[in-house]
Design a protein that fits this description.
Elements: H1 6-19, E1 25-26, H2 27-38, H3 44-56, E2 60-64, E3 70-74, H4 76-81, H5 93-104, H6 127-137
Helix pairs in contact: 1-2, 1-3, 1-5, 2-6
Length: 140
C-alpha cells in the first residue's frame, strides 16, 4: 500500500468541497478549490502523482474523456473518512487540511515526509489536459 502525503490530503479535501456529498467535479473546479484552501495553485506534478496515489488507495475515481474533459469524485470510502467536512467541525482551510491529513494518517506539518512516486503519474492525465483545466480555472 502506497503512503499518502500532505498534498494528497489537500487535493482530496479540494475534491470533496468541489463535489459536495455526491457527484463529480471538473479538474478546473478542483484546482480552484485547492487554490482557495491553500492560496496556492496545485502543479501538474502535485495533481498527476497525487491522483495516482489516491486512486490506488481507492479514495477517488477519475474519468477523462477523449476530448480531455477530466471529472473526479471521492469514493464512498473517502466520503466516510472525510464526512466531518460537512458537519461544521472544520471551519477554516488550515483546520480542514489538518483534519483530512489526520483522517488519512498523514504526518502533520512540520514533520518530514517522503513523497512516494513509485506509482508514477496518473497515466490518463497529460500535461496538456492539465494545462487546459488550469486555463478554465482562471475564468473567475
Amino acid at each position: 500500500m502506497v503512503d499518502l502525503v500532505r498534498v494528497d490530503g489537500w487535493l482530496l479535501a479540494a475534491i470533496r468541497y468541489s463535489t459536495g456529498n455526491s457527484g463529480w467535479a471538473s479538474l478546473a473546479d478542483v484546482i480552484d478549490t485547492a487554490d482557495w484552501l491553500r492560496v496556492l495553485e496545485p502543479t501538474y506534478d502535485d495533481v498527476s502523482f497525487s491522483f495516482s496515489r489516491l486512486k490506488a488507495r481507492d479514495l477517488i475515481e477519475v474519468v477523462i474523456s477523449r476530448g480531455g474533459r477530466v471529472r473526479v469524485r471521492a469514493t464512498p470510502q473517502a466520503e466516510t473518512l472525510t464526512s466531518f467536512l460537512f458537519g461544521g467541525s472544520a471551519w477554516q482551510p488550515g483546520d480542514t487540511l489538518e483534519l483530512v491529513n489526520k483522517a488519512l494518517g498523514v504526518a502533520p506539518y512540520p514533520q518530514p515526509e517522503i513523497e512516494d512516486r513509485t506509482l508514477g503519474r496518473l497515466p490518463e492525465l497529460s500535461r496538456e489536459v492539465f494545462n487546459a483545466a488550469v486555463a478554465k480555472s482562471r475564468i473567475f
